[in-house]
């Protein structure tokens, strides 16, 4: 599996270039002490990063050539007046590994996948490349290339392991498969590719939602479990990382199915992740699987199951010692109780969630929880009050969620505004609901999420009897036009 071609930033066995500038900035502090300073600086600006000594080591060794946007904001806050390159990092456009491509004016969302994309044919004799894509961009930035092209290409590049075959092909799951006796032992490069695939899927989901990503993400998941099933991890620590990475990838793909309305497939992926967690004895992964299973059960109307799985997740999470994880699971439980109409139990769960959340972020917070900040706390409360029929109270929380949300995370911004529009429509404020609905419509060119479309459809249905109210008729016309085009 020697690399024949490689884009900068890809997981590879080739030694990285150290970052001596960042090492000098650390000074006499240990990596752990410096990681603590990074987390403290993040709190100062309302950011969340799960920085530890290992992350600092990865930066200084050059394994992390360019930080994600959250870390970028923290580092620039810590060292004002400097740029990323002043801190020894590579420019983001270099790490991306390719320039932007123009796209046809009317690229359909179901267009054939580009060659080299998981699930699409690849010309014979070509080698895969790997790279690190950029993070979500502000809405005001024009995107002259196809969203689906970028999604497919990013997923392909994120999971290629640095050779002429993908992980799936190398393990006999593709047209380039090799005989079993030639399979190499699974090492750090392969595991790092699985972990990177998880991060990139989450990044793209933040920007676009699940509908356009689910099919493309299935191939990396199959490849990850093929690696797991091969039973050839070089070390016990590598095997543990591989189990954790495969399980997190199953949850990420399950979430894409969930967000795009494929509930049965989502449930299967979450169950797969839970089984992997149990085999590996990984309470953090187990808590994550239960957390998403609870969310799915609530959306599917299985409210008692939502309560039970959230409670099971809290049991597992006690070993993780992350207050924020316990807060999120308590919110999941509250959502289940709200769906059952049990206001008292819902309020008790919400109170527990607030108590855990108030303890602030911790170094033990799982990496996947980077989305869970005050906007999400407000949004989940809005969902509880909406389920209990307290529309005005729900709208207050939804408005706060939409106001606080970072505009780069387009999917969540659209989701919170859709929740707000729906709550306002039922609270007797049709003009405000129409205005919020128009804001969601403006984001639909960037986001493909069946959940958001369903919420917008509910809003339109609630507003039709109020078509004469200010702004409502125009919103309904725009919504119906968008629904027809879709």
Report on the architecture of this protein:
This protein has helices at 20-26, 31-44, 53-61, 69-78, 92-96, 147-159, 167-170, 188-208, 214-230, 236-259, 263-280, 283-299, 303-317, 323-339, 343-358, 374-387, 391-404, 410-426, 430-443, 450-463, 472-485. The chain has 486 residues and is mostly helical. Among the domains are: 1-99, no CATH class; 148-177 and 184-281; 385-486, no CATH class. It is globular, with a radius of gyration of 23 Å. 49% of the residues are buried. Mean pLDDT is 76; it is low at 1-14 and 96-182. Residues 1-28, 95-148 are annotated as: Disordered.
Provide a concise account of the structure shown.
It contains 21 helices and no strands.
Q: What's the number of extended β-strand segments?
A: 0
Strand content: under 5%
User: Which consecutive residue ranges, at least 5 long each, have pLDDT under 50?
Assistant: 1-14, 96-182
Tell me about the largest β-sheet.
none
Mean pLDDT: 76
Q: Helical stretch count?
A: 21
Topology as H/E string?
HHHHHHHHHHHHHHHHHHHHH
Alpha carbon gyration radius: 23 Å
Helix content: 55-70%
Measure the end-to-end span. Answer: 43 Å
What structural class should be given to the helix and strand makeup? Answer: mainly alpha
CA-based shape: globular
Element layout with pairings:
Blueprint: H1 20-26, H2 31-44, H3 53-61, H4 69-78, H5 92-96, H6 147-159, H7 167-170, H8 188-208, H9 214-230, H10 236-259, H11 263-280, H12 283-299, H13 303-317, H14 323-339, H15 343-358, H16 374-387, H17 391-404, H18 410-426, H19 430-443, H20 450-463, H21 472-485
